[in-house]
């Protein structure tokens, strides 16, 4: 029984370390996906506003004087 404590310590320590590393990896992956989604939404909104501004400018230039 005395020889098994070293193996138990190794299993518990590395089990904890690997679990913590995987948790950090998946948490960071989830956060990056959310950040990318928010950035894409902001870029789409900015593009939409720029297009609306171009359309409004084109309408004022085409208007009869």
Number of helices: 1
SSE succession: H
Principal-axis shape = rod-shaped
DSSP, total strands: 0
- Alpha-carbon distance between the termini? 98 Å
**pLDDT < 50 stretches:** none
- Major β-sheet, in short? none
Structural category is: mainly alpha
Measured as a percent range, the helix fraction is over 70%
Strand content: under 5%
Q: How many whole angstroms does the radius of gyration measure?
A: 28 Å
Mean pLDDT: 90
Describe this structure in words.
This protein is mainly α and 65 residues long. It has a domain at 23-59. It has 1 helix and no strands. The model has no long low-confidence stretch (mean pLDDT 90).
Concise summary:
It is built from one helix and no strands.
Q: What would the keywords be for this entry?
A:
65 residues; mainly alpha; 1 helix
List strands and helices in order, with pairings:
Blueprint: H1 4-62
């Amino acid at each position: 029984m005395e020889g098994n404590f070293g193996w138990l310590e190794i299993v518990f320590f590395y089990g904890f370390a690997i679990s913590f590393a995987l948790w950090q990896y998946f948490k960071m992956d989830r956060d990056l996906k959310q950040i990318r989604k928010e950035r894409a939404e902001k870029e789409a909104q900015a593009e939409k506003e720029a297009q609306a501004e171009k359309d409004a400018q084109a309408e004022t230039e085409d208007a009869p004087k």
